[in-house]
Amino acid sequence: LNLLNLQQISPRALLQYDVIHVSWTLTVEIFWYMLAPVLVLAGRRWALWSLAVGLLVSTAWSYLAAQGVFNPLFQAAFASLSTPVDAGQKIIIVNNAFPAQIVFFIMGSCLYYYRDRLLRVNSTLLHTLVVLLVLLAGIYINRLPVPIFLTGIGLGAFFLLVLRAPASGDW
Predict the structure, then answer these.
(1) Whole-prediction pTM value?
(2) HEC string for the chain
(3) Which of 8, 17, 42, 151 could pair with 46 in a Cys bridge, judged by C-beta atoms 3.0 to 4.6 Å apart?
(4) CA separation (Å) from 39 to 6, 80, 153, 157?
């Protein structure tokens, strides 16, 4: 599984044999690369529907994972490990699985598809959105299941601001 970058599918592969502990993200990315061509073929007319479905799937997975609904699916795999699994490791494997992350990839695709329209959004609105989501993070982070799609909205607004910045002559 490590050679195929599918570590997150197996707690043993990720927690016992993986030397780069952030490689769980590679599994998420590989699943995205399998889904991305479908969304590209669907085109711009389905982008917002894809975003709505991705938001629903990601939010539902995150909420159900936070409630422990998926824990029985991983119970035997966790039990087979030589050391006990802590809460953080369970979050990486269960809560951060591909279904929870899909919305971030679709948000990025929508930013690309609609970049011309989005670049015309008022800068004050974008700055306000970024600042509010940063300032309110202490409130919503502990109340909403992880990962939080609000983070993606804030990052999307930030990236739009970065895209508007003048090009730097410094290499």
Answers:
(1) 0.79
(2) CCCCCCHHHCHHHHHCCCCCCCCHHHHHHHHHHHHHHHHHHHCHHHHHHHHHHHHHHHHHHHHHHHCCCCHHHHHHHHHCCCCCCCHHHHHHHHHCCHHHHHHHHHHHHHHHHCHHHHCCCCHHHHHHHHHHHHHCHHHHCCCCCCCCHHHHHHHHHHHHHHHHCCCCCCC
(3) 42
(4) 22, 38, 20, 22
